Fold these 3 entries.
Entry 1:
Amino acid sequence: MEINTSLIDAINYRRSVRIYDETKEIDAEIVKKCIDQATLSPSSSNMQLWEFHHIVSSKILNQLSIACLDQSAAKTAKQLVVIVVRKDLWKQRTKANAAYLKNSFGNKPESEYSSREQFALNYYQKLLPFIYADFLGIFGAIKYIIGWVIGLFKPSYRQLSNADMRIVAHKSAGLAAQTFMLSMAAKNYDTCPMEGIDTLRIKKILNLPTSSEINMVISCGIRKPEGVYGDRFRIPFESVYKQW
């Protein structure tokens, strides 16, 4: 089997496959490696508020297939990857980033940090806790108003509500999902991102906390020719491209 070697090859090869060849297996270790590559994706403030649940168990595959509304992309898949947003882990992630920075700065007291080093540390120890902290949406609403008031006088970051921060976390997870699918395409493995799913049932099957959120479920396998529903259609590039 010829392997796609360039990024453009992988981009052109990737399609949302709805029917997989049930006679062809895929290597779980290769899928795991593609997930590992997905963790290299950019994430807002390097918070990495994601988890990747790699499903190889036939029992759980069957359960998730039902939770994916019996889509053929789920029923015929050899493996599934569930992208989970863990915004609730923001405290652990800020602490991990701060610890990494301190280690990279070397064995010296904070009083000897350069202004750049101190700014970076304050970003994770003060600014991000302010941005992510919330209580029943109240703090988020207050921060949202503050951002808009400041924005009347100078450029200001305005997306500070609880809903805004959820969007930020899901955007980062979406970037990781795309990296995973392109990594799979580079191995001539096929995928299909699914959003038509019962997220509550999926969280129950995977024993996820209520504070977690399902970003998408990605089915994996080897395509059947009929598994790609027609030629790729895209809106004309001139309609979506604006140069200023």
Entry 2:
Amino acid sequence: MNPFTLPSPAKLNLCLHIVGRRPDGYHELQTLFQFLDYGDHITFEPAAGGEPGIRLKTPIPGVADDDNLILRAARLLAGNREPDLPGITLSVSKRLPMGGGLGGGSSNAATVLLGLNHYWQLGRSLDQLADLGLQLGADVPVFVRGHAAWGEGVGERLTPASPPQDWFLVLKPACDINTGKIFSEQGLTRNTPRIKIAPAFEGDASRYRNDCEDVVRKLYPEVNQSLKWLSQFGPARLTGTGACIFGRFPTESAARIIWESKPSGITGFVAQGVNISPLHTKLTEL
């Protein structure tokens, strides 16, 4: 098989409600996931002569191999069959910031699971791959399944949803946020009333928010300042535990006008929200 490259898209949490805490310490969530037509790319290059083994051509700075979700996903899928499977070299082109709340690592893991399932012709179903993905992280299953979704539990119980495929300006303030720190904060809201599946924000949008946002704004002035700036142009919100924030726009040109005026020191991008993952679209072409 020739080398092939698959997208590893970003996601947004269009809302994130914390509705409780489980005995094991994990938080019960309700969230609306949507993909973006922007993200990383992972290239799958068969080893010369089909030699066995999983190799990562482009290590991620500061991430040990044992913590790298790309390698962990590949090894988890291979299991004890790794010595008998055709060798593969994986390389990643990173565009998504680490610790940004865009799901970059989880998306990478899902892309590897789906890509290697194709390359090794394992015939695993999406249900089986999503179950494997959950062992790697709560956000991995939504990337595996590839459809915008209302998520519950720790985010793994998914119901397909179809929010408007608007344009977004995504900004990354100059700070890195530790998810564990946010979820352990005493001031975090953990008792938001449960709501039914959001019909793509019909009705009163004020019911939808990110329960992590107040805590993040207090702990990270850079996020607070960026949200204040972006809110001049419409509702702005944190995705995940941040640090990335986003604003919704009806057209690409409207989003790019605001992008051109962003404060210095902030990175980001403009992308369209999509309800079918670009990964799944590309897989149909292989």
Entry 3:
Amino acid sequence: MKLKQFRIFVVLADELHFGRAAERLHLAQPALSAQIKMLEYDLGVPLFIRTTRRVRLTSAGEAFLPEALAAIAQSEAAVRVARSAGEEGAHILKIGGVDSATAGLLPRVVRRFREVNPNVNLKVFEMLSAPALNMLENRSLDIAFVRKPPNDEHLQSRFILSEPIVAALPKSHPLAGSSEIAISDIAHEPLVISGRSSRPIMFDVVLDYLRSNGIEPNILQEANERHMIIAMVASGLGVSLVPSWVSDFRRDDVVFLPLKGGGPTVDVHAAWRENEQMSVVTNFLEYLPNASVPLGL
């Protein structure tokens, strides 16, 4: 299987029309059909049901779509990191990891760091924990932010913060004016969450929390991107459970409420190579919050 085939599959899954998909991809339609057939052959299952009147995904195609999107996104992140690693300059600091760090924590930390270190060129990439650790080991990253501390003697890590999960509701929701919400109050609401393929730890934390409260989730939709989740909540399609940093989106049509009893949390750890020689790495680590002290940035 080739990444090119994944991209072709994703476009066809979006268009559900071979002619339009071929035009979008600048391919001849027979070539597109051949690539899809090769992918189906490699997978051993049909991905599309084709009739003279319509094209639609099979159940296998629906299951494969989020995995293909995640694979494409990860490959693009790897390319960006590799290219930045090849740039010349003695003061490049490459940072990557989970969104609670790259979108939630780092904007405030980076602002303070750059005030004192204006000559350091920072490259920040969002990715899952496993690829972040792999890229840290092969020196494509200098600091990785991950959900769990690495079990590797060549890496060091430090617990940074534990972030609460909050409920996201459309502003029109009857409970939107509450100061907090019990999970039982939204137990039967359609749920929009990140798919396990895109954010496995977050997915498991949410499902374990719901099931520990006797709730079998009514999952309406799995979406890879946070802004898509919030857009779906805003449209009234369902509610969501998201890390608290997502409330920084500050949409007028969505409210974020803490969960009664505190709810679940997700952790963030910073990891770096053992005996790191780059002074810019140890310097940046000093700007990260101490887990025992409120963030207050």
